[in-house]
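Final report, Chapter 2: Outcomes

The project's central promise was a pipeline that accepts a single protein chain and returns its three-dimensional structure in a standardized token representation, suitable for archiving and comparison. That pipeline is now operational. To close this chapter, we reproduce one record exactly as it appears in the project archive, with the input sequence first and the structure output second.
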Amino acid sequence: MTNFRIKISPEALQDIQQATDWYNERGVGLGEKFQKQVKKQIDKLTSNALLYTIRYDDVRCLVIKKFPFMVHFVVDENRGIVDIFAVFHTSRNPKIWIERNQKDL
């Protein structure tokens, strides 16, 4: 089994921070619990990223346990990289990351 390097886009990091801030407003320590869970789940992608099915285009999704968020990522097997584009609440449209990428063009 391949070990992948994790690459997290600035937008995905911003998603995580915004959710952390939101959870911190809801309860002391809740944002920290969210961040720890996200890190724990993302770390698992280094060894098992290919186990997640492709949900749309070439994008795979990982559900964050205990929180209604999904990590949206692409696996580049040739380069050995998991490229994380977004960390969205499950109620949001996952195609939003496409709009983000188009802004960068």
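Archive annotation: The chain has three helices and five strands.
This record, like all others produced under the grant, will remain available to the consortium after the project formally closes.
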